[in-house]
Amino acid sequence: MNVKLKKLKDQVIVITGASSGIGLVTARMAAEQGAKLVLAARSESALRQLTTELNQAGGRAVYVVADVRHQPDVQRIAQVARQEFGHFDTWINDAGVSIYGKLEEIPVKDMRQLFETNFWGLVYGSLEAAKHLRQRGGAIINVGSILSESTAILQSIYSASKHAVKSFTEGLRMELEMDEAPISVTLIKPAAIDTPYPLHAKNYMDREPQHAPPAYAPETVARAILHCCETPEREITVGGGGRMMTSMAALAPRLLDKFMENVFAKQEKSDRAPQPRRRNGLDHAAGQLQERGNYPGHTRETSLYTSATLNPLLTVALVGSGVALATSLLRKPTNGSDQPTA
């Protein structure tokens, strides 16, 4: 079925995990483009501050305090959207948490709790959205990771949850297509993104965590998400560095294993001693609005790879222009060298 999506300015968009990182940047960017928003997260103070900010700037946003681990909370998000706006057009599942550490040192209860948020919260949101959108059409956008395709050492349980997200998203897409439901289902796969992700992660390592390079700005992901609100896409990888990693996982898995063991594991550890009592997103809600984290290196503000993915016609045009230029240079006479010799 040919799925047609509305322009952002005509949409009502639900965003989970809206108080931090990618979700926060996406909310602000969507509001700037005229979308009406239903924002969900666990921290009421952060949500209240964000909705006030957006509404005072001329937008229209409401919030729902919700923990996506609990299905009734997710159902309430949909109920508020219908009560306030009559419907919603796009549902973005962005809520997520992480854990750093060796699998044998992480309590199983923490692993289960991570899956409750990253996987089951996304399942609850996707099913609620599908039920609402079957008749009117729209988009479901699930934020996975490049770790949906590979595994990051010392982030293994997070990687496992993102593998599950990918499989669920693909299964849901196929079933909706089989039923000819007018719903676009997209998987977004970011590389390392400079958000508070390491700061909010629960940590069982001997040093505080940090992103391994390269890291990209959260705006790169937000632009990809909002593109998919208007344009049906199967999946989008954000960050050329991430694309290289997923390609290595497919073509040279043992090489990637060795890279993870000998290089990546060291890059994930900062020079700061662990802070066992610091608040983490697994056990506590983020109390303040924060788009970016503490990445110590250079944050890449754009991704040429992702820009090319989102603008394939532009890419073709640029490649075509390059070929034409190269051809003309090859044909251009140089110092009469193309003249026949006597």
From TrEMBL:
Residues 266-300 are annotated as: Disordered. CDD domains: SDR_c3. InterPro entries: NAD(P)-bd_dom_sf, Sc_DH/Rdtase_CS, SDR_fam. One of its GO terms (molecular function) is oxidoreductase activity. Signal peptide: none annotated. Pfam families: adh_short. This is SDR family NAD(P)-dependent oxidoreductase. It comes from Hymenobacter persicinus. The lineage of its organism: Bacteria, Pseudomonadati, Bacteroidota, Cytophagia, Cytophagales.
